[in-house]
Amino acid sequence: MYVYNLTVVVNNEELATWNEWLKNVYLPTVNRSNLVENVRVFKIMDMPEPHYAIHHEQQNPQEMLNFIQDVLSDLLKEAAQQFGEKVLFFGTNLATLTI
Q1: Angstrom distance (rounded) from CA 30 to CA 37
Q2: CA distances from 84 to 23, 47, 52 (A)
Q3: Are strands 2-10 and 51-58 parallel, antiparallel or unpaired?
Q4: Could you list the pLDDT tens digit for every one of the 99 residues in the chain?
């Protein structure tokens, strides 16, 4: 399993607007792409300001790469235009470790 973890730091002033964007733009776009098998949103509990982790799950590494290049990059550009530095994103590629 491959997971693209997108960590999001949201300024309190933008929290309500970002939540609406996540619900009405981000998640529907990700789901329509059919390049991600599952997407889950987590609130990071031990941070003073709102932090979230969005997990995008996929079995196929090429499909994950296609998602990152073709879908996610456009969404992050849109978010940068709308929120500027009040909502920050950084991503990490993860793979399941079999022990």
Answers
A1: 10
A2: 19, 21, 17
A3: antiparallel
A4: 999 999 999 999 999 999 999 999 999 999 999 999 999 999 999 988 899 999 999 999 999 999 999 999 999 999 999 999 999 999 999 998 999
Q: If you classify domain 2-95 with CATH, what class do you get?
A: alpha beta
- Letter for the amino acid at 17? T
Annotated domain spans of the chain = 2-95
| 11 CB burial (10 A radius; 0-12, 13-18, 19+) | middle
**Which position has the token pair 């792409």?**
33
What CA–CA distance (Å, rounded) separates 30 from 91? Answer: 15
SS3 30: helix
